Model the fold of this input.
Amino acid sequence: MKKLIVLLFGTALLFSTSAYSDVTVGFKVGNGDLEGTNAAYTAGSTNQAELTKSKDSMFGAIFAEATLGDTGLSAGVEYVPLDADITLDGSNSSTSANVEDYTTAYLLYMHDTGDAMVYAKLGYSQADIGTINASENTTINSQDTTLEGPMVGIGVQTDELGNGMVGRFEVTFTEFDDISATTTSNGSASVKKSADGELFTVTFGLSKTF
Done:
């Protein structure tokens, strides 16, 4: 995934050197709602049913885009300079894992409807997962270290607000691939536990094109 980000960003910078290309930088803030589902599993004589929970939180991100000629397309990279501890058990933070370096590489298509500038974006997101903090008597034998999946989004861009700044209202949806960890507890045989998730965001941003 990191190679994909480097490739897209490198392509954007290449096109940004053209007289027909512009570079846009900005930031956005808003709310993200993350829904995660633990798959059912059996550990010895214990049967754990599937569990789904969600959590919403405010967040912020910075982004940079470069237009790709006269195509209406831009290549962009977005980065969330925050980390978070994530768990499906809100009463037991000891079983959480830290997620950081959340980055999305994307293509954005901007269209002028005559009344407003609207856009759609398609990309791929990835974050690093730190070591899982296991509960007492549980050993983590192996675990996935990345959270990733495709992202789609739509938005509206305002007219100039002043000093070359424009506003954006945007919604996105990201569907994360399955992640898994293999554990042993209380002397039982190792058990593979898996989960997936979905992220829905609503944000407002400000950006400027150079």
